[in-house]
Amino acid sequence: MEIILEHISKRFQKHWIFKDINYSFITPNTYALLGPNGCGKSTLLRILAGMQNASQGKIHYIDNNVVKTPINEIYKSLSFTAPGQEIIEELTLREFLNFHFSFKKIMPELNIEKIIELIGLGSNSEKPIADYSSGMKQRVKLAQAIFSDTELLFLDEPCTNLDQKGVEQYKQWIEEYGKNRLVIIASNDIREYYFCTHQIVIEDYK
User: Which of 60, 82, 165, 173 could crosslink 4 through cysteines, CB 3.0-4.6 Å?
Assistant: First the structure.
């Protein structure tokens, strides 16, 4: 798949966050959206995901020479997570994973039990997610995105709330399950995007 941005700009009220971004993202590749807090990294990632509209410009999703519209098609090919993303905390981990993978394909080599093992929360799998620490919840968010069998993987500040063990876990998952995908990371932490072969500095588009 190829995602083409044509003159993408975003403003809030009278303030332009970024202007006139022309860029192509192509599968399989890894990209980092870089810059300090407030520069527009998360906003651009949500625009790429079809979750937010640009103020100006056009975005095209091209797969086998067929243009897809985000609202009708792109979500089927996309996994996404961000610090503010909500998960159903009333469910146990096992219930949540079963629910999530009832509408997202799971990686062929995985199943629910294997994912629980990879997350390292087997002893907590029957507890409500509401009882988890912030780091445990972040591992669940990453798992539901990374282990979904989608061509597009978009992660916003993926190591938020993770301790060093969680960061190492994230790196292992990306290295093993990020292959042959279009991966885009919004970050200002090198631990999160060290593997990205392309970097886009958002402040260059002010």
Answer: 60
